[in-house]
Amino acid sequence: MNIHEYQAKEILSSFGISIPRSRVAITADQVERAAKEMGGHCIIKAQIYAGGRGKAGGVKVARDPEEASDIAKELFGKNLVTRQTGAEGLKVRRILVEEVVEIAREFYLSITLDRETSLYCLIASPEGGMDIEEVARTSPHQIHILTIDPFTGLRPYQARKIALALGLSGVLCEDCVELILNLYRCSQEKDCSLVEINPLVVTKAGWLLAMDAKITFDDNAIYRHREYPDLVDYSQHNPLEITASKFDLSYIKLSGNIGCMVNGAGLAMATMDVLKESGGEPANFLDVGGGASREKVAEAFKIILKDDDVRAVFVNIFGGIMRCDIIAQGIIEAASNVKFTLPIVVRMDGNMIEEGKQLLRESGLNVQIGDNMGDGARKIVAMLNHGGI
Amino acid sequence: MAILIDKNTRIIVQGITGRSGLFHAQQCRAYGSTIVAGVTPGKGGMEIDGFPVFNTVEEAVTHTKATASMIFVPPPGAADSILEACASELELVVCITEGIPVRDMVLVHAVQAGSKTRLIGPNSPGVITPGQCKLGIMPGPIHKPGRIGVISRSGTLTYEIVKQLTDIGMGQSTCVGIGGDAIIGMKFIDVLQLFNNDPETDAVFIIGEIGGSAEEEAAYWIRDNMKKPVGAFVAGITAPPGKRMGHAGAIITSGKGKAGDKIRTLRECGVTVATSPTRMGEAIVEALKLAGKDI
Prior knowledge:
The structure holds two protein chains of two kinds.
Chain A: H1 5-14, E1 22-25, H2 28-37, E2 42-47, E3 59-62, H3 65-75, E4 79-80, E5 90-91, E6 94-99, E7 103-114, E8 119-125, H4 132-138, E9 144-147, H5 156-165, H6 170-189, E10 192-203, E11 208-210, E12 213-217, H7 228-231, H8 239-246, E13 250-253, E14 258-262, H9 265-277, E15 284-287, H10 294-305, E16 312-318, H11 324-337, E17 344-349, H12 353-361, E18 367-369, H13 373-386
Helix pairs in contact in A: 2-3, 5-6, 10-11, 11-12
Chain B: E1 10-14, H1 19-31, E2 34-39, E3 47-48, E4 51-54, H2 57-64, E5 68-71, H3 75-87, E6 92-95, H4 102-113, E7 118-120, E8 126-129, E9 133-136, E10 145-152, H5 156-167, E11 172-177, H6 188-196, E12 203-209, H7 214-225, E13 230-235, H8 259-268, E14 272-273, H9 280-290
Parallel strand pairs in B: 1-2, 1-5, 2-4, 5-6, 6-7, 10-11, 10-12, 12-13, 13-14
Antiparallel strand pairs in B: 3-4, 8-9, 8-11
Helix pairs in contact in B: 3-4, 6-7, 7-8
């Protein structure tokens, strides 16, 4: 689960980490007033759920409140396209207006899960403000990694080693030790998959500040943080993805025109792969869950049909313990409710398979049966291209 | 003898009084597995559909001589259930539960790594040695006893390969669903090691997916150690970066975990990779032929 930069900074601040003075605005008028508060000269930062904003024109410096207002007018409502957003970009609905800070030095700092060791690790680099993957490629010696023992936690002597490696000394070094310990406390208490400060700066006046921050929460831990749902900015999500999550379906909108409904994440990915191999383009990834209950199948169908890009539907259910006749009933029920006329190919496997196929054939829907995954994929592509086989 | 489980495996079900816990306990029993008891705190002493229920794993093990556990406890209590099973020194713990917080699993992983217990999962469909023991939620009838080992991060996609194998007459020694989470107990390499030493396994098929680097690690291990032919499929060649594809662990982050890279590494290390999920069965046949083995 993602949150905005300003929210991440507020959380860091609540853990004792210093952040620049700022205001969040939702109108150009608010931006102008916030700019006045900052003394005119300020930074305007578009808040979207993606990085790479600087290069995409989402972060700008304003010299006075009027210029701040002009920049805001241009940004609000605009779809900002960065290297992380995809071609459509993400809509700017909130802007962070921040004081200008005179920077002496910049660092990179983050805590995330290292999947190879199954441990959290702290990553630090004196190359702050840069894309850390880029740093890892070009100057790996500039990256310091510390894996954290879950029983002892991150210890001050370890944090000190990192602070020294960043080239800090004296009081600043000890400030940084405290900041690192606070960052670790934040990552644990808030169940963060990633907490990143980039850049962490030393100001010319000698203070450590988190100039930019990113936090990603662990989706599995949402149940023990009641405040998380309130932090979500739904304007940053596809509306169908929001609906799907309410029904515990895993749905991701893609750019093609064949709606896919599959049970199990691995099979859903494999289905996308085989569709593409057959010359088709999936309109979505949709996992109804390994169990594939009739209700979920029906809800999934409704979601697929709300996507205007969908011109055909490919259902691939490996029933296993779930009975195929029940799945078929779910499909027929859902399709009849919305007066569905687009071509459908259903591939099912598992118990009561013949009964399931029989029900589909007699349903009156524009449906064909796939004998296996490959056959189903070929059939749906053919139906889409030629209006039948 | 296959690996991990056989007809002598004695299973307890943690969370047996829940809907799916009971359902799958019944399904496993119907397949022929020996389910000796269930564990649900606060419900010790009762009996549910013939299964005695205990309050703790320790009690259940003392009374039933159980050797393995299957966990259906919901996410808030699942990590504790794994730790409890490890504390009783069961040989094998299979955690079916999906959705355990990463922070809990970091701790569990660290504890479990030092214990005698082998952990499969979480977010695993389980383990099956066809014809002997089913310890999981997979459909039994698609499996057939035989000599191919299967290891997978996925559930239904594993059923797909198993069905393809069974349809071409190739049975399975043991099928292991290692789970779709970012932190899991046994990884590809741990299971490959067991299959490598199992006289009843002739070849192994692994099913990977986007996210992490477990497939690459497995590839290098296979190149350096594996004595048997290996086939593979990696799901998600068309998956967009930055999106979590259903499984918690299935996500391409910072350009890492792409299916294409995994496939390339596996091939470089001598693994026969199926180009399409419809040709997984053919890939294992080819791998066996390349190794000069009879099919």
